Amino acid sequence: MKVAERVLAFGFLALLAVPLMGLLLWPRTAIVPGAPQTPFKGPARLAEFPPAFEAYFDTHLGFRAALVKTHHLVSYKLMASAPTDTVFVGRDGWVFLNQEKMFESFTGAQPFSRGDLDAWVHALESCQRRIATWGGKFLLVIVPNKETVYIEHMPAWLKARRHETRLDQIAKRLAQTRLPFLNLTGPLVEAKSAHQVYAKLDTHWNGHGALLAAELVTKRSAELLGRPVPLARDNIAIRPDRRPGDLARMMSLEGWAVEERPRAVMRSPKNTRLSPPAELGEMDLRLERQNLVVHEVADPTLPSAVIHRDSFAMALRPLLVDSFRRSVWVWRREFDPNVMSRERPELVIFQLAERYLEGPSLLDLCGS
Length: 368
Hints:
The protein is an alpha/beta fold and about 375 residues long. The chain has helices at about 5-25, 50-60, 65-75, 100-105, 115-130, 145-150, 155-160, 165-175, 185-190, 205-225, 245-250, 285-290, 315-320, 335-345, and strands at about 85-90, 95, 135-145, 180-185, 235-240, 240-245, 260, 265, 270-275, 295, 305-310, 325-330, 345-355. It folds into 2 domains: about 5-90, no CATH class; about 95-360, no CATH class. The chain has a 7-stranded mixed β-sheet, with helices on both faces. It has a two-stranded antiparallel sheet with strand order 1-2. It has a two-stranded antiparallel sheet with strand order 5-8.
């Protein structure tokens, strides 16, 4: 055997040995976030041993995390291909969610029936009437999906299938009513010519998008209440930030695929967070979902508000809390009678992402 052949054979054997060494010496290198490991259970029969060991070895392979990330990075960067079926890759490195009926939402493949639209209007009008019993005002705010704003980065085959969407339908239907409705699609599409308003590697807007939404929400709220709902624009800064997005995490590329994601922050916030207690520091996603988030500002001239919201409000909340003397942020998409009866706010905002128009119809939105 020639020297070159011996070196090649030795290198090949070494590569085979490295994962086994990792399994024995560095077992944590096999841990991939979101991918459970199969425990090894001694089979009752000898014939069951091979598949049982294979399932164990596949998920405990040394350096599995690095191998998976490398494969996913090559798929995303070099092949413009999604390494997981929970996302898909569009043009110019943009990544989009492939869950929660994204395809149907984008293409309009499952439109509302006339009865569906009437039911939505009935539910929303029920909210408005209930809130009006204590003199409160109601505002529905719909945040468009990223693919609705950045349609140019979607694959051509998907764009060719696009028809009237549920958001298009409900916007037209609500325009025929007196329901206060803020559709952020047009303003965000217009604003993207000046700034990127959504993240490439996340389903959500960035600081520019959140700031625009805060400006529009306070303006519309002031119109409804007939009194100022100030936004301290000169107290808000757009700061650079580099963070992995939720879509990068779905591809197991946190730390490997990052982007500049400008963040809008209050320079000198005036509010006090009452719940969860401020001493807990910054809340993570899990904590925020489990709790009401309550802020107060020592200014009796400001209105009070309850905001029912989803994950888009995580970037919006820090910008709006100084606009209300008391704001209660509720992570749920239906009427909470206990919160409402206790707070009796001057303004109730239902913030809803477009993709949730594809889910349950929310006909019990206000317990109707």
